[in-house]
Amino acid sequence: MKSKGIKNLLIDLGGVLINLDHQRCMENFKELGFTDVEERLNIQQLHGIFMQQEKGLITSAEFRNGLRDMMGKVVSDNQIDAAWNSLLVDIPKHKLDLLLELRSKYVVYLLSNTNEIHWRYACHNLFPYRTFRVEDYFEKAYLSYEMHMAKPEADIFKAVIEDAGIEPQETLFIDDSELNCKAAQELGISTYTAEAGEDWSHLFKSK
């Protein structure tokens, strides 16, 4: 990868680093009484209250209240968070090792469409490894809910390029969405579309 002039990596979170279990999440919401969750929650293309949360346009408290309104019943914050976080399974240790290794060769950034509830859960439960914490894996984490914009909008990529001071042609973006990768390509960023749960370490192995 170095031979191609790549100096910076933009890495996605869900599906690329974190293994996801959509079905488990749906089932847990149904158990809470969110009977039409499958119609309202498309993990691949969030909309409505879920996208508002992802862009940080509503608070976590407003998101939970919105879900309670949809369910039409009293459900605790902890119950909602547990069902929502059940989407996130784990980050395989070999990927955490890979991130640490890549940091010695590239400037590594996280670029994720995520929300406050998922991000806090990931920081406390998925990234801690040996003595390492989330801040040890990335130069900086760019999160949709903090930036108030989301992939595949061109503006989020432009904001990262400007804030990080990086050149698009020296940057590789790894994401599990073809749509997101296409948006990055249009700005001159190299991309790799990863399959869900794929071990993409082969990208960095010498031929």
From TrEMBL:
Its EC number is 3.1.3.-. Coiled coil: none annotated. It is an enzyme of class 3 (hydrolase). Gene3D superfamilies: HAD superfamily/HAD-like (3.40.50.1000), Putative phosphatase, domain 2 (1.10.150.240). InterPro entries: HAD-like_sf, HAD-SF_hydro_IA, HAD_sf, PGP-like_dom2. Keywords: Hydrolase. The keyword Thylakoid does not apply. The keyword Hydrolase applies. GO terms for molecular function: hydrolase activity. This is D-ribitol-5-phosphate phosphatase. The lineage of its organism: Bacteria, Pseudomonadati, Bacteroidota, Bacteroidia, Bacteroidales.
